[in-house]
Amino acid sequence: MKKTILSITAAALLTLSCTNGSASSLENPGQDSPTVKTAEVEKEAKNQSEGSGKPVLLTKQDFLEKVMNYEKNQTEWVYEGELPALIDFYADWCGPCRQAAPVLEELAKEYEGKIHIYKVDTQKEQELASVFGIQGIPAFLWVPSEGKPTMSSGIAQSQEETKAMFKQMIDEILLGKGSQL
């Protein structure tokens, strides 16, 4: 009996940890699931070019051309882009990644022409994830036009808090506006 209860508790904890407590598709069966939305975002991102107001999905080759050619510059950071960039390392199965996706879409529109927002699927681009030491997702690489990049991970409790956190980091790290306290 104790083993059964322990097994059920372990399964429940595992389920909650993988979904970050999100059960919106179960609570609202009429809505699209976050996985479907993420797949749609990825499909659109593949077809988008920079400056389109949408996150752009990067392959390894795209990353080498648009962000940093780590094969050529193995000892120092050399940014290949013109505008600062926010790079989201994510996976389809990651609940917090799915929660961050619509926030990044909004920010891509809001900061269009000021920064690039890129997405890297860590399941498909495992080499990129390895190069940057990605061990947990979502992870974000903040790349200013000049200087060294900064890595952060995780999101806030709500989409509003996540958006506010991202905006502060964009303004401070990428656009150099300093603290807005």
Would you kindly provide a written description of the structure presented here, covering whatever features stand out?
The protein is an alpha/beta fold. It contains 7 helices and 5 strands. The chain has helices at 2-19, 24-27, 34-47, 60-66, 95-110, 126-131, 159-174; strands spanning 56-57, 85-90, 116-121, 139-143, 150-153. Strands 1-3-2-4-5 form a 5-stranded mixed sheet. Helix 3 crosses helix 5 (95-110) and helix 5 crosses helix 7 (159-174). The protein is globular, with a radius of gyration of 18 Å. The relative contact order is 0.14. Mean pLDDT is 78; it is low at 1-48.
- Helical percentage: 40-55%
| Main beta-sheet strand count, sense and barrel state | 5 strands, mixed
Mean of pLDDT: 78
Percent in strands: 5-15%
Strand tally is 5
Rg, please? Answer: 18 Å
By secondary-structure content and strand pairing, the structural class works out as: alpha/beta
Count of individual helical segments: 7
Enumerate the strands of the largest sheet in spatial order, edge to edge or round the barrel: 1-3-2-4-5
What is the chain-wise order of helices and strands? Answer: HHHEHEHEHEEH
Low-confidence parts, pLDDT < 50 over ≥5 residues? 1-48
C-alpha geometry: globular
The span between the termini is 55 Å
Task: Please tag this protein with its features.
5-stranded mixed beta sheet, 181 residues, alpha/beta, disordered N terminus, 7 helices
Helices and strands, with pairings:
Blueprint: H1 2-19, H2 24-27, H3 34-47, E1 56-57, H4 60-66, E2 85-90, H5 95-110, E3 116-121, H6 126-131, E4 139-143, E5 150-153, H7 159-174
Helix pairs in contact: 3-5, 5-7
